[in-house]
């Protein structure tokens, strides 16, 4: 499969970022230390500064100067713009920020699935759905490109991977892992995955016991996946580190964590074998 370049993609593609508007989030954050969450405004918009920076990096990658100027405005102005799209500030919403090359910013708003707001901060076993998401591996390989590094409306590779995995609705509790030509996990089709692994083998003879214990890891950006906002937050908080994970290393039935900007952190289970009828 050949890599897609910006010049080959549709001229009408847009850069996007999806996030949650959670009215309970400011109250939850008041109980948190001020240095562990990136939004000094403590707004209901989950990880808002990370989303703005993510969109700005995409605009700069595609040389969209007008979009970059729009995104360089301060966070307070960005919040005011988003507020104009919220129909009811007492309810949670799923926002899809869509920005074109001319800097026009539209926001698609839909009702969000209710969740425990604490699951937005870091993985927690409490108040999780009783059944983890089913996580499978795409049967085809995806070549990394600017459209896997940055989130855009040019998502044919992801749509095809979900169809191959028989995921027919965004509401399905299922995910498919995207794999590069080297057999490395890049990311999930709509999530960042985290796996429990021993850290890469140190070269020194004497290693700390802490380094020998299993820890949570997520694929590095060098494997070709998206620089997700919850991924950045999990790394900043020290929940995980980066480590290359290959398909061959996955274990059927192992539990993992998944995250995205709408649902926060939630459990998954790797399913390498077809379920019996």
TrEMBL record:
**A GO molecular-function term, please?**
catalytic activity
Superkingdom, according to UniProt?
Eukaryota
What name does UniProt use for this protein?
Aminodeoxychorismate lyase
**What is the originating organism of this protein?**
Aspergillus thermomutatus
